[in-house]
């Protein structure tokens, strides 16, 4: 898609990629692309969010997403408050919405939320005035992860259209797989969910699937490996040796992919399960580049959403003066 197909950004919330257009996705990616050199070189960035306050409201563990949202907001000059659910009044049965509205009353421009409940960010967005950015809700969506994956793919492969990508592993419990499916499909890419039958059956999204990783690999420009999310399994019997035999990405397996194919993983990587060390640390791996892209994408996402919020605030103030 040409750059002219970018769309003027009007959303104050970033909740998922399912209902975002290709033009909106390109708007985020192009702005993030412009930020990438300053992230890579550690050069200062324009303080476009100076004086703004962002709340990182994480109710589930995180390393990459929390850290990169923090770095992104700080690089643009915003102040970030880290909310830790385990030491908060959520433990005294205060609701998520009451918690957020109380902190918002102290002066907030954006809430970045990760939550174990599907659509918790959507619920919050309906209850607060400030911007809400989804940092992962249950196995539903993780939009900024998919956006950073798309930026890494576009940078490394030189395009974001007409590619074949395998998303391999526990797709059933993966919000990353869902957001990538929604996002990548909008650009005419072929996305194949690969894994054992137990992870492919009764999916609540329409996706091409395969249980045969070795047969899919020769078609792949990119392979995204996913962690087995044991914490989200209810009572699934899981044979780890059988799984690694069929689905671990080893150097031998990777050699079957298209020449120049790249390997992605959203992290955290469980080495020796979904991926061999030689692949995780090998020349085709873009895992650490994904982490770098994450800062640039989250800078773009915060700037666009808070920009839309401020236009809304200005219009409301103008309306009141009339
Ligand atoms: N990819 C990702 O969401 O990682 P974290 O859980 O460490 O944030």
Task: Outline the secondary-structure elements.
Blueprint: H1 22-41, E1 53-58, H2 64-75, E2 79-84, H3 96-104, E3 110-115, H4 120-127, E4 131-137, H5 143-157, E5 164-168, H6 175-185, E6 190-194, H7 197-200, E7 208-210, H8 213-216, E8 222-225, H9 240-247, H10 251-254, E9 262-264, H11 277-280, H12 287-321
Helix pairs in contact: 1-5, 1-12, 2-12, 5-6, 5-12
Bound molecules: phosphoric acid mono(formamide)ester.
Give helix % range. Answer: 40-55%
| Mean model confidence by pLDDT | 96
Contiguous runs where pLDDT drops below 50 for at least 5 residues? none
- How far apart are the termini? 42 Å
Largest sheet: 5 strands, parallel
Report the structural category: alpha/beta
Strand content: 5-15%
- The secondary-structure element order is HEHEHEHEHEHEHEHEHHEHH
Report the C-alpha radius of gyration, rounded.
20 Å
Strand line-up across the major sheet: 7-6-5-8-9
- Can you list the ligands bound to this structure? phosphoric acid mono(formamide)ester
Number of helices: 12
If you had to describe this structure to a student in words, what would you say it looks like?
The protein is α/β, with parallel strands linked by helices and 322 residues long. 42% of the residues lie in helices and 14% in strands. The strands form two sheets. A five-stranded parallel beta sheet has the order 7-6-5-8-9, covered by helices on one side. The chain has a four-stranded parallel beta sheet with strand order 2-1-3-4, with helices on both faces. Helix 1 (22-41) packs across helix 5 (143-157), helix 1 (22-41) packs across helix 12 (287-321) and helix 5 (143-157) packs across helix 6. Phosphoric acid mono(formamide)ester is lined by residues 62-65, 136, 145, 266-268. Phosphoric acid mono(formamide)ester (CP) is lined by residues 62-65, 136, 145, 266-268.
